[in-house]
Amino acid sequence: MATSRGAVFFMLAVSCVCSAVSHRDQQTWFEGIFLSSMCPINASASTLYGIMFDAGSTGTRIHVYTFVQKMPGQLPILEGEVFDSVKPGLSAFVDQPKQGAETVQGLLEVAKDSIPRSHWKKTPVVLKATAGLRLLPEHKAKALLFEVKEIFRKSPFLVPKGSVSIMDGSDEGILAWVTVNFLTGQLHDHRQETVGTLDLGGASTQITFLPQFEKTLEQTPRGYLTSFEMFNSTYKLYTHSYLGFGLKAARLATLGALETEGTDGHTFRSACLPRWLEAEWIFGGVKYQYGGNQEGEVGFDPCYAEVLRVVQGKLHQPEEVQRGSFYAFSYYYDRAVDTDMIDYEKGGILKVEDFERKAREHIISWVY
């Protein structure tokens, strides 16, 4: 089943309106973004708002969330969302940071129209940038973020410390997990029965789940585990982001083009492509020529071997995940919809072998 990219930023807003997440070993970037005074857990029923900006590589999106806390001590319930977006993303304004920030200013008007004026001063506004800004030179990314902070500072909304920053892959994994389990009700009853999350982006992919077996904890690299307390429960998550294994970056790696600087007319070839194919693709501002193998094998098996060479020895594979349930989204969802494996609106339930079967069917269609 699929969930939208915006769901991750919904969980950021939950954190914003109710400061209920704390890290056991070290402070996480999202801890303290929302002040507890904004959402006193023992207060009477009240309506709360949160403004989240998702600054991605292809566009900037705003999510204005409305929450209602009906009973003292209970989690706030999502009552509504207003969404809008602009293109291109902030990274397109790498040399015009003020112009980039102006796109955020325009979206703030959406928030003003959606939130009662009486709530403006106590409604937090947060912007989190992802891979688009991570790929920029640090000084240029900072210049963009500085201009966004200035826009926020001049706005009538509450601007918490650390409200404008760049997320790393692990943060995305953790928040995706919290989001899905919050929305499916897994966290409301303080249960430890949860689902894992799989997020396939363009440059990286994240896997996050709550281990149920001690063996998993013992065999997992230390850097893959994180513990935190949330809503009076403690969770020890397995989470890892594989940089370079996102859909587009992995495609380049399979072609042998990931770390090339200049292509100079060179055509990258793969057994994963039709023998007759000759095409161009622009990624990260670089134009690549690619095509199928003119000599040698093409088809599923040689293609699988090419991909295996890219990932072999670089993946940690806990046995436990074979028996777990996961929510997969982003490019997992897109590719499943594109190949008619799931419904665009309803999503669906798939197994790993369903993706393999569809890949074989697709390759057979042009090999024979």
From TrEMBL:
It is found in: Endoplasmic reticulum; Secreted. One of its GO terms (molecular function) is ATP binding. The keyword Hydrolase applies. Its EC number is 3.6.1.6. Residues 1-19 form the signal peptide. It catalyses: a ribonucleoside 5'-diphosphate + H2O = a ribonucleoside 5'-phosphate + phosphate + H(+); IDP + H2O = IMP + phosphate + H(+); ADP + H2O = AMP + phosphate + H(+); CDP + H2O = CMP + phosphate + H(+). The keyword Signal applies. One of its GO terms (cellular component) is endoplasmic reticulum. The active site is at E172. Its main location: endoplasmic reticulum. Pathway: Protein modification; protein glycosylation. Pfam families: GDA1_CD39. InterPro entries: GDA1_CD39_NTPase. PANTHER family: ADENOSINE/GUANOSINE DIPHOSPHATASE, NUCLEOSIDE DIPHOSPHATE PHOSPHATASE ENTPD5. Hydrolyzes nucleoside diphosphates with a preference for GDP, IDP and UDP compared to ADP and CDP. In the lumen of the endoplasmic reticulum, hydrolyzes UDP that acts as an end-product feedback inhibitor of the UDP-Glc:glycoprotein glucosyltransferases. UMP can be transported back by an UDP-sugar antiporter to the cytosol where it is consumed to regenerate UDP-glucose. Therefore, it positively regulates protein reglucosylation by clearing UDP from the ER lumen and by promoting the regeneration of UDP-glucose. Monomer; active form. Homodimer; disulfide-linked. Homodimers are enzymatically inactive. This is nucleoside diphosphate phosphatase.
